[in-house]
Design brief:
Two copies of one chain form a homodimer. The first copy, chain A, is of the alpha/beta class. The first copy, chain A, is 43% helix and 19% strand. The first copy, chain A, has eight helices and nine strands. In chain A, strands 5-4-1-8-6-9-7 form a seven-stranded parallel beta sheet, sandwiched between helices. In chain A, strands 2-3 form a two-stranded antiparallel ribbon. In chain A, a hairpin with a 5-residue loop joins β2 (12-13) and β3. In chain A, α1 (26-38) crosses α4, α1 packs parallel to α8 and α6 (121-129) crosses α8. The longest helix of chain A has 15 residues, at 51-65. The A-B interface holds A 15, 27, 30-31, 34-35, 37-40, 73, 75, 78-79, 120-122, 125, 157, 159-163, 165-169, 171-176, 178-180, 182-187 and B 15, 27, 30-31, 34-35, 37-40, 73, 75, 78-79, 120-122, 157, 159-163, 165-169, 171-176, 178-180, 182-187.
Chain lengths: 187, 187
């Protein structure tokens, strides 16, 4: 399986539907890395153009990969080895292409249903099973900017929990989506 | 569906396998409440005997339910309405019993497979579908104490992601488990 995950901090929306670069949530880096390790993804990109935020992400990684954290908890070290801090989505695509020799299929996620571009979890599993290189994108703050959704080859169906409420954190949404795409449950 | 969720802060293990009461992670309260609202659970218990931690949880809830947070983000208000801060598992069971008129079936979660007591996600879905009252328990820190596992009627199968790594955060594990038990995916 050749699955990569990107957590996009720019361009995303704020609650007023304005385009912003969001701040990094350190816990997200840990949660995504641990999820990625559990589900066997090949790399995780923290995408932000802000240099202070890149430095913050790098500092977190240093602590857990070669600093005190590496001795304190080696499971974190193992997971954080998946992380690359990257200034843009284009750069993340370029890195995947260099590594795999193929341009990845971009699959975006969104809490709202995208009329013409929505694909099912089953369809996305077929891409992965057939050996396609996939870069799966998650948006921070109020979600991925329309420019990113337009650039994506597909947008995954939103998560339906059986209620009208769909305001999950990006960490928990990513957990559910990775399990639906890769997990082996008895469902 | 009569599903309740409990996040246990005592008794749990630390990394040295000692029994501790863990500190509350404020983000967990938000993430669990938003998950609970998405998947239509009836209540979420933050279980801690420590009074300062109970006060912290109550302060978070006040901010989002009646303080500034309620105006800032009404989706959080809606989700945090599910939360009860409770000093013990026994008290959480008592509250569920008072509300439902039935003692809940206790289903614990654990990252390690429990030989004789493990049940599948499919079996747990059958309990829920048949109208059983279920209290699903998650452990913070290094996981639920053996006393809690012994007290539980069942222990869910661990999450398998297809790799040998199983060190998810409790937030993301809860997301995956709720989706497996309640979510309607196309899998």
């Amino acid at each position: 399986m050749r699955l990569y995950v990107g957590l996009v901090h720019f361009p995303v929306y704020n609650k007023h539907n304005e385009t912003i670069a969001s701040a990094i949530t350190p816990m997200d880096i840990h949660d995504f890395a641990r999820l990625g390790k559990t589900y066997g993804i090949k790399g995780f990109f923290v995408i932000t153009p802000l240099e202070d935020q890149q430095a913050l992400a790098s500092r977190i990684m240093r602590h857990w990969i070669s600093g005190y954290g590496a001795q304190y908890n080696h499971h974190r070290k193992e997971a954080l080895g998946l992380v690359s801090v990257t200034p843009s989505l284009d750069m993340a695509v370029k890195k995947v292409k260099e590594r795999e020799g193929l341009t990845p299929t971009l699959i975006a996620t969104d809490a709202a249903k995208q009329k013409d571009r929505a694909i099912s979890y089953e369809a996305a599993r077929v891409f992965l099973a057939s050996g396609d290189v996939v870069l799966l994108l998650f948006g921070t703050a109020w979600g991925l900017h329309e420019d990113v959704l337009q650039k994506a080859d597909h947008v995954l169906e939103p998560i339906l929990g059986g209620s009208a409420y769909n305001h999950l954190s990006v960490r928990t949404a990513a957990a559910i989506i990775l399990d639906r795409l890769v997990g082996k449950s008895d469902c």
